[in-house]
Amino acid sequence: MKLHGRSHDRHSLARLAGDLSAAGGVRSVVLDDGTERGIRTLEFRTGAGLSFDVLVDRAMDLGGAEFEGRGFGWRSATGFRHPALHEYRDDDGLSMMRSFSGLLLTAGLDHTLFGAEVDASQYRYPPRRTASHGLHGRVANLPARLTGYGEQWQDDGRCVLWAEGEVRQAAIFGEHLRLTRRIEADLGGTEIRLTDRVRNAGFDPTPHMYLYHVNIGWPFLDEGTRYEIPVSRTLWQTDSVAEQGVSNVDMPAPLPGFIEQVYEHELEPDANGLVRPRLVNERLGVYFELEFDTTQFPSFFQWLHLREGAYAVGFEPSTHRVQGEAAAREDGSMTFLAPDEVRLYTTTFRVGKLR
């Protein structure tokens, strides 16, 4: 691996420093002020300019992220609010907006997209004939059980920084879904690897929807930043696209009163079913890239939120189309996991220099 312009292995690093943290690593801290107080956080540093935070008490989502001192993980005014402050049905189901910040917000595990009231008869509990959902489901505000983290040398000479935990979403006479998440980054590397395993740990067929809300903010996002997305066709877009006419390729500076523009695109995968949409900032000479498998995430949404004070853009791979759960149930595309059934999701977040 290369660190600070020189190649190093385990032995050479040990000669230079008595603790690997001189080069990089994973550190456990607890946030201790304001609405973030009490959130367990893992700080990753790869030693190659990439640093990012894993919010253990927020489903092990990714919070702040930087490359060579420049932020790319979106930081909103909400901060990383402690989940104990979260009320799922607050704001008519839009309560997610009070804790919406960071590089990754996970949506699911049984519902994504806008709120819906759907049949819950599979749980066989007469007082609960329906289930009521808020925007993007519950999982992002559930603490994980941290099962391990640290640095591990591999046989091929790599040192892998890693963390793993389990998030449990469960109710009596309701769903029992478990998310096992593993996050990896190589010492000397510039990518984050995410492996998610969602299992129906209950004994009833259970709805499953999954979406990653990947959010890029300033300074990676700035006037002139460009989207590069392998779009074969656009399937849907919000009315605000026609009303505002703002490009979804070349980004403007923050706009007063901007209404979010959302697109559902059909993407063109490579021979392995992978796509790599990216955001390119020529002025800084950097890019952000998201790699995912279209067999795992067959739908993709592009999110533009270019308003003053909340300036962000998003990449949203999804298991279901934008019309949401009620429509998916009606057209037969809704996913129901059988007892002990598992779905696997493997995704890579990558940053780098253009030259």
From TrEMBL:
| Molecular-function annotations in GO | carbohydrate binding; catalytic activity
Task: Identify the stretch annotated as signal peptide in this record.
Answer: none
Per the UniProt entry, what are the Gene Ontology biological process annotations, in alphabetical order? Answer: carbohydrate metabolic process
To which species is this protein native?
Streptomyces cadmiisoli
Output this protein's name.
DUF4432 domain-containing protein
Under the heading Gene3D superfamilies, the entry gives:
2.70.98.10
Report the InterPro entries cross-referenced here: DUF4432, Gal_mutarotase_sf_dom, GH-type_carb-bd
Pfam families attached to this UniProt entry: DUF4432
